[in-house]
Specification:
Length: 387
Amino acid sequence: MKKIVSKNNNWITFNTPPFVNTGLKYINEAINNKKICGDGPFTKKCNEWFEKNFNAKKVLLTTSGTSALEMAALLCNVKPGDEVIMPSYTFCSTADAFVQRGCKIVFIDIRPDTMNIDEKLIEQAITDKTKVICVVHYAGVACEMDTIMDIAHRHNLKVVEDAAQGVMSYYKGKALGTIGDYGCYSFHETKNYSMGEGGALIVNTNLEDIEKAEIIREKGTNRSKFYRGQIDKYTWVDYGSSYLPSELNAAYLWSQLEIAEKINNSRIKIWNKYFNEFKQLSEKGLFEIPFIPNECVHNAHMFYIKCKNLEERTAFIDYMKRNSIGCVFHYIPLHSAPAGLKFGYFFGEDRFTTKDSERLVRLPLWYGLSDKEVKTIIDAVKEFYKN
């Protein structure tokens, strides 16, 4: 997708990364501490914040959401020829993590109401080669996790939650990422909370898995035990890689976690404004707006509308661009991509994945978006559909 450059100073960007003034202060503090590599004081503060606030067993910051998914795939102990079930409507990292282990990806259709994996289609896609169900909580709205966990338990399968967009979202009171065996967050600049590039792995299983995750994250060494004083020297004990983020990135993230509720409330306010202003147009059938199931608490990661078809969406994005507003579409379904055709297949009928992906367009939504800018966006959407 081409980057749009504003022709004037009134351009409303699709996304602006979150920034808190204390971010620079904490980065300087990390530098002055002469500890800018991984697992310094700010990294530990972030890990502990998630564990405490989300009631998570173990949280480990990583270099990216992709890294967290790769670690989850390693912890699932998948091998070449194993099958992993996931939605096709997701980012390539969801699949890449398992493709790297030699897995076959089995894509299934989504629910059109939430754009999440259709839990009713999972069981029929299971074979004797299936090892993992990887769910994606699209737009920070939870999948139907009770049903999915029940299927996984009955078939002895692991569940990985790709909760890249789900920080501060909940399903029946449980934080997304803490329900399956492993959860994965992203702190990319497009997410609600950002460290530029970064992520986190949540381990919800047992002490053995936690220790294994620490080893994988530390290049295959037992260095974490050494720093805790549990051993007198550390050494290479298993496979792993370098998944520790810089302390500078963690310091930047920590400044946002300190005011996490404020950031969340700000985004929710914008999301609610969109929802209330567009509800009537949606009821008239002009376009569709997001649906939030009763058991879900979302984090306002995204507000999208679904146009009638691809042609209308193209015209809509062009209209918003001419009015200095950045709007973008999202994923092209993985099963139709060259790598998707090479490493996986679509099970069953593609009723909604492709059709709905071609209709969906995302509106600007970020911490710091002003009331005036929100009104401008709303007025432009209404004007487009009026005409």
